[in-house]
Amino acid sequence: QAHVTESGGGVVQAGGSLRLSCAASGRTFSGYVMGWFRQAPGKEREFVAAISWSGGNTYYADSLKGRFTVSKHNAENTVYLQMNGLKPEDTAVYYCNAISHLSYFGGRHNAKVEDDWGQGTQVTVSS
Hints:
- By secondary structure, the chain is mainly beta.
- The chain has no helices and eleven strands.
- Strands 2, 4, 5, 6, 9, 10 and 11 form a seven-stranded mixed β-sheet that branches. A four-stranded antiparallel β-sheet has the order 1-3-8-7, with no helix packed on it.
- A hairpin with a 4-residue loop joins strand 7 (68-73) and strand 8 (78-83).
- The mean pLDDT is 92.
């Protein structure tokens, strides 16, 4: 059974930065797209960013381009999300997951995830 562990969240002031980590275990994620998602209180979980495991192609939610950067470390089976210029509206629980199908329509990415969701990591941005 594949398992991911998210970490790196915390409380930061608006304009600050955080780097989230997603450590994957249980099987190789080679060949998958690894994605970051977030869910704010009272809202649906939404796509944030993703990176292909082998090719290094990256994908971002339109509203987050330029502030967030996704990267990976294959040897460590880990994916990162560098978040800069954080805003209060970025406050959410952030999750990662393997994506089996990713599409883009109407200005939004739609992802079919492979595994059960982990605990996530809380990011709180104060104004």
